[in-house]
Amino acid sequence: MNKQRSGWRSKALCSVIGLTMMSPVLAAKPIVRDGEYRFLEAQYGDEWAKEDKEIDQKLADMREANGGERPNIVFVLIDDVSFGQMGKPALNDVMGVQTPRINQFASEGMSLNRMYTEPSCTPTRAATLTGRHPVRTGIKEVKVALVGEGLGDNEVTIAEVLSKAGYSTAHIGKWHQGDIEEAYPHNQGFDFAAFPLHQQVQLALMSPESARANNLLGWYEGTQSNALALDKKFKPNGLVTGVEARKGGKAREVDLKPGETWTQAHYERMNERYQRQTIEQLREMAGKDDPFFLQYWPLYPLNFVHPEQARSLNGGFMADKLEVIDDWFGAILDEMDKLGVADNTLVVFMADNGLMYHYEGTSGQSQLVYRGGKTDFTEGGIRVDAYARWPGAIEAGSRAADIVHASDLFTTFARVAQAEKYIPRDRVIDGIDQTPVLLKGHGNGRRDYVYVYQNELLRAVVKQEWKMHIAAPGMPAAAAGVYNLYRDPREQHPLIGHSLWSGASFQDMTKRHMMTIKAYPHNELGKDKPYTGIENLRPESVETVETFMSWH
Amino acid sequence: MNKQRSGWRSKALCSVIGLTMMSPVLAAKPIVRDGEYRFLEAQYGDEWAKEDKEIDQKLADMREANGGERPNIVFVLIDDVSFGQMGKPALNDVMGVQTPRINQFASEGMSLNRMYTEPSCTPTRAATLTGRHPVRTGIKEVKVALVGEGLGDNEVTIAEVLSKAGYSTAHIGKWHQGDIEEAYPHNQGFDFAAFPLHQQVQLALMSPESARANNLLGWYEGTQSNALALDKKFKPNGLVTGVEARKGGKAREVDLKPGETWTQAHYERMNERYQRQTIEQLREMAGKDDPFFLQYWPLYPLNFVHPEQARSLNGGFMADKLEVIDDWFGAILDEMDKLGVADNTLVVFMADNGLMYHYEGTSGQSQLVYRGGKTDFTEGGIRVDAYARWPGAIEAGSRAADIVHASDLFTTFARVAQAEKYIPRDRVIDGIDQTPVLLKGHGNGRRDYVYVYQNELLRAVVKQEWKMHIAAPGMPAAAAGVYNLYRDPREQHPLIGHSLWSGASFQDMTKRHMMTIKAYPHNELGKDKPYTGIENLRPESVETVETFMSWH
């Protein structure tokens, strides 16, 4: 295996290691920003600096009111759910799915009605973890089976930042940042981690039940004879399932015994276990003196087998699980009440990207307001339901239509945790501190733009209510469709007049972004032998690794 | 003119006249229902009869608590606004339009999240007025210019029913039930009426400003030379604008002087006047001993000229007016508070059908969740925002996803006003009493079906979450697309399996409906010379009538 490291990467590594001995002088260096942010900062810098003092004071007052302690942070990230499917009562009735607990949670906090993610799970999660556009970290969509790649140890995650600042940290559920040791959550700053090595394609789609439910035509050998197939390795097998580990330790697979076949029942038990472990972690961490950061990334509603008895009016195999998610999130909130930590905890609940609309109809999920879904750069791929609750800090029942990007959570979490000094200063941080929106409400955002990538391709640029779909290489800029998102939320009617007046401004935005990339080139993805750091690999997994290594 | 009257129509007329001397025995006759309702009644009759006693008691208790008085009813019907555009906070942010007063109103009452209308203004309004599918009244879409037709005096409106029961009644704003005397609101039961003879195509679209705003290419002679046109009557002109009248009196045109050209300024003043007159009527009627029924049907947001300075983030020429409607509705609610009538008034606020999506983009309105708009039989044409507030009777912040149809307002208003005995018994009443939903909440509806017409054509049948688009004549029933509205709200993916299991049930539903029509044939539309009963016709209107009569 070619374990390539560039000079820049080595420098970045040193910098990460250097965090432990970071001097106050170093910490005072400004965060490196994208050109577009600096362009705004030149227009608003004085105003923002003044406002920041006010916010620092407010945060200090809140700490004082909480016995000097910083807030806990609970971050629940739901998989593949489009804007409107959770927490918006009228749309519950449209879908025939009820999310009363999420609706209630929304009414106790702020609805971030213009939250942007990346168009797919891995990049969105990388953005929240690193505060950076995933393209800068080398992260793209991580494939289903073995890749020997993952989030590099040259990246600094929010868990590392908060750990430095004295937070207890735990990650439960989906991770999806690669199959190599350095990418695992317990090697990326989490004290405890329980997570599946891969994702739900393996765990929910590649099961006999899902194949028999008509969702994976012919994949399962029981559903076809397979007589003419030569290559027995084409269909992935022997993949590691769920593992658990503590910071710096080895991972241990806990969900499957050697020789056992993965089934829907395993998937359901895994989901239930993560929910249970989240509650357990909550109890454990609430009992400590330190504040905590608990990250729960459930696998539901992704699911490809119809329930024996549906509970929702909708009944679709994913829509029905949204109601389960609602129950489970409610149980977490109840537990927080019981533990007495609700008041001093910032809880963020959101989805990671739009629905898998490829299963629209039978899954019971639908695009609702925006067009497209997972993998798309239209709003349907990247606009999600997002809510933040922090009693006493965030006004109950408030809404903000300011643009927020998933990477902003990194910077905002660091700010409220007084951990900004641990944000690295040697690389671009795209995440913007949105504490002003949380504390002062709608209209206090510091971002009126988003760059929309599919893997390493810049596909669209959003500025205010305008969105330009980047023209194909070589095409004239006026051929790039520009959409007014308030008037055409489904991006169906590009008007040439829009492109003509805004084309140059959009090009300038892109230039500012590209100049930043030139000054701070992208990091490289971590590369290693797959399944490193797992102490109890099943024989079938060992064989799968051997197959993989045989041609690498 | 051929003033045709059938024998049946004459009988119906007698029956209307007969209402004044209706005997208790006659009143005790059951309301004539559509076969589909009777099919449900056969399944739930005993249960409903028991529940009705309970509801009667609750209504009696409420009257007692209100000094023996029945509730007032205020019915605000907005023109051409799709589901999601008013009163749903998250979708406010999607559109860049804020409706805080409607949102607040919704939170004080019940959201009727599955309210169905007809696909166009005239039929929806006829349905609320008569409690009948418009097809039964002979009402179709009423055209823009002279037609010599309208809602017949053989129909019994909710205003007539409530007048009989001792209510003061007033109608302000859009009427759109025809250009003949018997169709005017003051001849259909309203004590006072201020309304335009026609609708906004004349008042908002056919103006020099709208033509210059690019919304009516070439219509206005100032924008083209018109050199080759022979027929000078092809473009409608000389139309009557706004009139006012008292019950049984003559109408008087109040908005335009002879020789004057109608402009956007006239349209804006007309809108403002209706709002002012609504407040005035509210004051006048609140001062009386009788309970009142106030119907306000604004002309906005229909509008085709951009404001000099838009107020919304959206800025579209209709979307911007949604914010004006919000202000104005808020002012009405404030006035009700001031007058002390808010507690004893049922206020229903809703739209009459989906948006004019033909102007999507520039108007600033968009389809949002459902597909289609005005004139369509898809949900986008017939699903609207609808809210009902009645403090003490309706639970604040509640929602109901039960199917409700615009015609149900007729029957429900009659029930809460103790006026059911004045509902005619000689014709089919489609409107279902939805008081159980209002008083007991979600899940207490008595309708799980809707027939969807475009004029006299039955185009779709809705049952529970299923909707069948009627196949073209001669096509096999399995070719009729059947959609699950929870899973496919945009009606894009008909699944043959749906049609196969439900086809026969849908056909049976249609048969039950058609058998009822056979037993109670449709009524005939009123016909007369246009502009009868207007005492101050302008010379240009007289000429227009003469032209019309010359070829009839």
UniProtKB/TrEMBL annotation, chains A, B:
Transmembrane segments: none
Signal peptide region: 1-27
Stretches assigned to the Sulfatase N-terminal domain: 71-418
Lineage summary: Bacteria, Pseudomonadati, Pseudomonadota, Gammaproteobacteria, Cellvibrionales
Originating organism: Halioglobus maricola
Name of this protein: Sulfatase
PROSITE patterns the record matches: SULFATASE_2
Similarity annotation: Belongs to the sulfatase family.
Keyword set, alphabetical order: Calcium, Hydrolase, Metal-binding, Signal
Keyword Calcium: yes
GO molecular function: arylsulfatase activity; metal ion binding
SUPFAM superfamilies per UniProt: Alkaline phosphatase-like (SSF53649)
Domain of life the protein comes from: Bacteria
Keyword Magnesium applies: no
